[in-house]
Amino acid sequence: MKITKDTTLAKVLEVKGAEKILSKFQVPCLGCAMAQMEMDTLKLGDICNMYGLDLDKLLKELNTISKNV
What we know:
The protein has 69 residues and is mainly α. It has one domain (9-66). Helix content is 54%, strand content 0%. The protein is built from five helices and no strands. It has helices at residues 9-12, 18-24, 33-38, 44-51, 55-66. The longest helix has 12 residues, at 55-66. The protein is globular. The termini are close together.
């Protein structure tokens, strides 16, 4: 599975090891109660824009582990 800026957080979390990478990049949505209700609509690109995270670096790391999915 190729992860892009339009991939939802729910889909990203289906990838084994993705949660660890998201934590490394300090994605706050993992512990947010509101995000738990919006996982199917929250897109990775939007999350990075909201919190000033480096989307390109995050995508590179996530796609490294998602090649096997």
